[in-house]
Design brief:
Distance between the termini: 49 Å
Largest sheet: 4 strands, parallel
CATH topology of the largest domain: Rossmann fold
Shape: globular
Number of domains: 3
Order of helices and strands: HHHHHHEHHEHHEHEHEHEHEHEH
Helix content: 40-55%
Bound molecules: iron/sulfur cluster
Number of helices: 16
Number of strands: 8
Structural class: alpha/beta
CATH class of the largest domain: Alpha Beta
CATH architecture of the largest domain: 3-Layer(aba) Sandwich
Length: 377
């Protein structure tokens, strides 16, 4: 059976060059050594590899991008996780997140009725069955419930309102997209979410879906096979609105800004330019770049279910390395465009004691209101 997985994901092509482990952001601070794991599995082809080390993976895809033999390392890891999940071998916090998605439609243990509590005085159309709009704004679980990420949702709807976009949200009907569910190996729950969400989407009429999170974007775009509608990330929409002159930033931000590429936007979907073009339209200075940016960008350790899976290490988290690099570059704001990056980098700023020097903001928060989306709650 294991041999099927090795064949399915081209693991048999591995030549043990180690480029995967060399590029892996967590290889240096955790027990995960993906080259070694593959080696073990190649030696014992008939057995399912049952190492716990695979739970350190953030599914960032750096390894897969660097592999010269095209091994589908991330899919392979997800299959191995699936085997363990089926046997109940999963961290309690990750299991709770999955159960919460099943029960409440979100991984944060929050009730469905509170899914729209992020809205304050913003005018937001909540769609009813049969409604027709140009754009469906898929808010996502983290911007809907997390107090810091809620700033991004409010900032984005303020921009959409100002630009006069005909959009609506699903309100309390919205349910988790399942991107992290799939990455935690719960394929059955993921398939259920795909079916339910596709059915739900079919009750309304819209031309495209805009997501706040690159994780929602990734799964709707690449993993919802029956979804016959355009899916874009909000930075792509903002670029379109800015370039067509529909939306303009009146007062440019003078603080120094550095951009952190979210893995599910950049490495996994090749969207590197849109966020940069949007930021450059909103700041007066020049955008600072990390040494490791674009394809080489360093993962913040927020993906692949790692928001709910703690790993042992006596070394700082990669997000902490990231904020120290940003501070070294004299940036005052780390811009990102992903709710998980926002949370991991925000925590890292506190851990590094850099609250007085630097903050992290979603790009829409930078544009919409300079004070919102900061590390202050
Ligand atoms: S980069 Fe690819 S070929 Fe090289 S060790 Fe890793 S999986 Fe094998
Ligand atoms: S997906 Fe990222 S974290 Fe996982 S093994 Fe590959 S490089 Fe490492």
């Amino acid at each position: 059976m294991s041999l099927d997985v090795l064949e399915q994901w081209d693991v048999l092509k591995c030549m043990q060059c180690g480029r995967c482990t060399g590029g892996c952001p967590v290889a240096i601070r955790t027990v995960l050594n993906i080259r070694k794991l593959i080696y073990q599995n190649l030696r014992e082809r008939k057995k399912w590899l049952q190492s716990k080390d695979i739970w350190c993976c953030t599914t960032c895809s750096t390894c897969a991008l660097r592999c010269p033999k095209g091994v589908n390392i991330v899919d392979y890891i997800m299959s191995l996780r699936g085997y363990q999940v089926e046997r109940g071998k999963i961290e309690p916090a990750a299991r709770d997140a999955l159960e919460s998605i099943l029960k409440h439609g979100n991984p944060w243990g929050r009730v469905r009725e509170k899914r729209t509590e992020w809205i304050r005085d913003e005018k937001v159309k909540i769609l009813s069955e049969g409604d027709s709009v140009d754009t469906l704004l898929f808010v996502g679980c983290t911007p809907a419930y997390d107090p810091k990420a809620q700033y991004s949702a409010r900032a984005l709807v303020r921009i959409l309102n100002e630009a006069g976009i005909d959009y609506g949200i699903l309100g309390t009907m919205e349910t988790c997209c399942g991107n992290e569910v799939k990455r935690m190996g719960e394929e059955g729950l993921f398939e259920m979410l795909v079916e339910e969400n596709t059915e739900l989407f079919n009750k309304y009429s819209f031309k495209r879906i805009v997501t706040i999170s690159p994780h929602c974007y990734n799964t709707f775009k690449n993993e919802y096979e029956g979804l016959q509608v355009e899916v874009i990330h909000y930075t792509q929409l903002l670029r379109e609105l800015m370039e067509s002159g529909v939306f303009k930033v009146d007062e440019k931000i003078s603080k120094s800004v550095i951009f952190h590429d979210p893995c599910f936007l950049g490495k996994q979907n090749g969207i590197y330019d849109d966020p940069r073009i949007v930021i450059n339209n909103a700041i007066s200075g020049e955008l600072i770049e990390f040494d490791r940016c674009r394809e080489r960008s360093m993962c913040c350790e927020g993906g692949g279910g790692r928001m709910w899976i703690e790993v042992e290490s006596d070394m700082p988290r990669t997000a902490e390395e990231r904020v120290k690099d940003a501070d070294y570059s004299k940036a005052e704001i780390i811009a990102t465009s992903c709710p998980f990056c926002l949370l991991t980098l925000s925590d890292a700023i506190k851990t590094a004691g850099l609250e007085d020097k630097i903050s992290v903001k979603d790009i829409c928060s930078i544009i919409s209101d300079e004070e919102e989306g900061s590390t202050e709650e």
